[in-house]
Write a structure and sequence with these properties.
Layout: H1 7-15, H2 29-44, H3 53-88, E1 94-100, E2 106-112, H4 134-142, H5 149-155, E3 159-161, H6 168-173, H7 178-181, E4 187-189, H8 191-195, H9 199-202, H10 208-230, H11 233-247, E5 253-255, E6 262-264, H12 278-281
Parallel strand pairs: 3-4
Antiparallel strand pairs: 1-2, 5-6
Length: 293
């Protein structure tokens, strides 16, 4: 079953929305229809994650064991962050972001609240976003705002590793491209998350939504489709290791767009001044060397 798309039309409508539009804004009728059609296609073509029941069972077992262990270990951190948020600003501790989940089902992705509880505006955040609270700015830099998503993993809404869940409005713009992606559970980390670990820093501050839709989202969709088609446990373990390198060690990680292979991003070497030709250094007879300044 084909999913019709009106990308250019819907994209222009999205970008012309007022800045005060919040994430809870009602989707347009055309976007609703796109999401319903997408969900219907995924329901008709339902298959186990990884293509086999055995692979799906291994992945789910891994998710349950690791997320439960991490939640237990992180409990003191979760309590400390919750207290800091409450002391720093009024409002709830947690925030539930609307996303499109496995097989197109609605997903409430849990996060620690980073913004003032009255904040509104673009769906995307940039570095130093004025809507951040003091604690929220630190949470964004440390990535600890994602910690509550371990509960989503334990519940089965998400996986530790998988495509990053996207906003319904963004999914509606590329419904056909998300068919393959949404066949697997969305993840806390994955190929696209590792490649764009510093997304908020590279987004255009003047037009973050336009920049994201035009330049970043197409690249992320390509990597997420690659993961959905080539999933295996060895890839998940590799992504976990490179996530630690990107988030904890703060190193830039490059992801090959065709193979999914990860390595440290090579930084261009600083240009050295050109050496002075030997002939220019030679002094003619009787000439004094210039004074050193």
């Amino acid at each position: 079953m084909a999913v019709s798309m009106r990308t250019a039309h819907d994209s222009s409508l999205l970008r012309l929305a007022p800045a005060e539009q919040s994430e809870e804004t009602v989707l347009q009728a055309s976007q609703h229809l796109q999401l319903l059609a997408l969900r219907r296609v995924l329901a008709e073509e339902a298959a186990p994650v990884g293509g086999t029941v055995a692979r799906a069972a291994v992945k789910r077992t891994f998710d349950i064991l690791v997320s439960a262990a991490l939640l237990a270990l992180a409990l003191p951190v979760i309590v400390a962050v919750a207290i800091a948020i409450k002391l720093d600003s009024p409002g709830p501790v947690f925030y539930a972001a609307r996303r499109v989940g496995h097989r197109g089902r609605p997903l409430r992705m849990h996060k620690f609240r980073k913004m003032d509880h009255r904040a509104s505006g673009p769906k995307l955040t940039t570095e130093g976003d004025h809507r951040f609270t003091r604690v929220g700015e630190w949470l964004a830099k440390s990535k600890l705002d994602e910690l509550p998503q371990l509960w989503n993993v334990l519940r089965g809404d998400m996986s530790l590793i998988g495509p990053r869940p996207e906003d319904p409005a963004f999914v509606a713009l590329h419904a056909a491209d998300f068919i393959e992606i949404l066949r697997v559970r969305p993840g806390i980390t994955g190929l696209s998350q590792v490649a764009f670990a510093e997304e908020s820093r590279i987004l255009d501050g003047d037009d973050p939504t336009g920049h994201y839709l035009d330049r970043i989202l197409p690249q992320k969709m390509g990597m997420d489709r690659l993961y959905a088609m080539r999933y295996h446990l060895r890839l998940d373990l590799s992504i976990l290791v490179w996530t630690a390198i990107a988030v904890v060690a703060r190193r830039d990680v490059a992801v090959h767009r065709e193979t999914g292979r990860m390595n440290l991003r090579r930084r261009p070497a600083e240009a050295l001044p050109a050496p002075t030709p030997a002939a220019a250094l030679a002094l003619t007879p009787g000439e004094e060397a210039p004074p050193v300044s």
